[in-house]
């Protein structure tokens, strides 16, 4: 499941089993008074012991998370490749999510980075 496409993880819950402070075990669903409270601040109401959730078929099985390590002189080439193959020059499918973060790791040997 991708965040954003189907909403938050908690948006997919259909029921929760919870042990309340008084020791009672309850199954909570959207018809319960505790439903919205549990989705927003569940840890304040008891201990959730299990969750029943919606699941979805994998729509894009050929996409994965990748970690790419490169030197600073490759930044422009990385963005050119991302624009061409992922963002597709602004014509990216709305089903595709791309994000990145940058980390400068001074412990890496600059001469051995690919």
UniProtKB/TrEMBL annotation:
GO terms assigned for molecular function: flavin adenine dinucleotide binding; oxidoreductase activity
Reported cofactor(s): FAD
InterPro entries hit by this protein: FAD-bd_PCMH-like_sf, FAD-bd_PCMH_sub2, FAD-linked_Oxidoreductase
Keywords: FAD, Flavoprotein, Oxidoreductase
Record's keyword annotation contains Flavoprotein: yes
Key word Acyltransferase present: no
TM ranges: none
Cross-referenced PANTHER family: BINDING OXIDOREDUCTASE, PUTATIVE (AFU_ORTHOLOGUE AFUA_1G17690)-RELATED, FAD-BINDING PCMH-TYPE DOMAIN-CONTAINING PROTEIN-RELATED
Family: Belongs to the oxygen-dependent FAD-linked oxidoreductase family.
Protein's recorded name: FAD-binding PCMH-type domain-containing protein
Source organism (scientific name): Neocucurbitaria cava
């Amino acid at each position: 499941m991708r965040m954003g496409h189907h909403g938050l993880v908690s948006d997919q819950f259909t029921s929760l089993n919870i042990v309340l402070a008084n020791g009672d075990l309850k199954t909570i669903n959207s018809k319960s008074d505790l439903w919205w409270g549990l989705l927003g601040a569940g840890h304040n109401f008891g201990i959730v012991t299990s969750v029943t959730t919606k699941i979805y078929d994998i729509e894009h099985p050929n996409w994965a998370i990748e970690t790419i390590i490169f030197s600073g002189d490759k930044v422009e080439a990385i963005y050119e490749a991302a624009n061409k193959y992922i963002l597709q020059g602004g014509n990216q499918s709305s089903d595709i999510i791309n994000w990145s973060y940058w980390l400068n790791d001074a412990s890496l040997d600059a001469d051995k980075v690919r």
